[in-house]
Design a protein that fits this description.
Nucleotidyltransferase, domain 5, 42% helix
């Protein structure tokens, strides 16, 4: 889907997936994903966070392979964002259509998040290279 931006807001315990179909529309919540590897009895171990990042990367890679989004925005606290980048980069082989925000914003709702990342969304929606790429035209040097 060429005109869809996915926004994944995540930390080690939870991830929220949103979509944007136009610059003017509010973000639409799609999915809430809890870390299935977390256990209250033993807490969250480092390898649990890594496994959760791998799980999210697999989900995003599947969406990318099926052409369900044109761009991706990853929003996460620094340590977890690094894990997401590592695993998503390994799976997809391409991070050129990914923007990142190095902050913990999982507490925000769709409206708050949209306001917080408005500059990034505006850049993505109005990027002329993106527009040419999505039109199917070739870029010339």
């Amino acid at each position: 889907m060429k005109n869809r931006i996915l926004i994944l807001v995540a930390n080690r315990n939870v991830a929220k997936l949103f979509e944007s179909r136009s610059f003017r529309d509010e973000l639409k919540p799609i999915k809430l994903i809890s870390n299935p590897f977390f256990s209250k009895e033993r807490g969250l171990q480092e390898n649990d966070a890594d496994t959760f990042a791998r799980h999210l990367a697999f989900m995003l890679d599947r969406e990318q392979t099926r052409h369900r989004f044109a761009e991706l925005v990853l929003v996460a606290e620094p340590g977890f964002l690094g894990k997401l980048r590592t695993h998503f980069g390994r799976r997809s082989g391409c991070l050129s259509h990914v923007r990142t925000v190095n902050k913990e914003l999982t507490h925000m709702n769709a409206k708050q998040l949209g306001q917080h990342i408005a500059d990034i969304l505006e850049e993505v929606w109005h990027d002329p290279v993106r527009a040419v790429r999505n039109s199917g035209l070739a870029l010339s040097a």
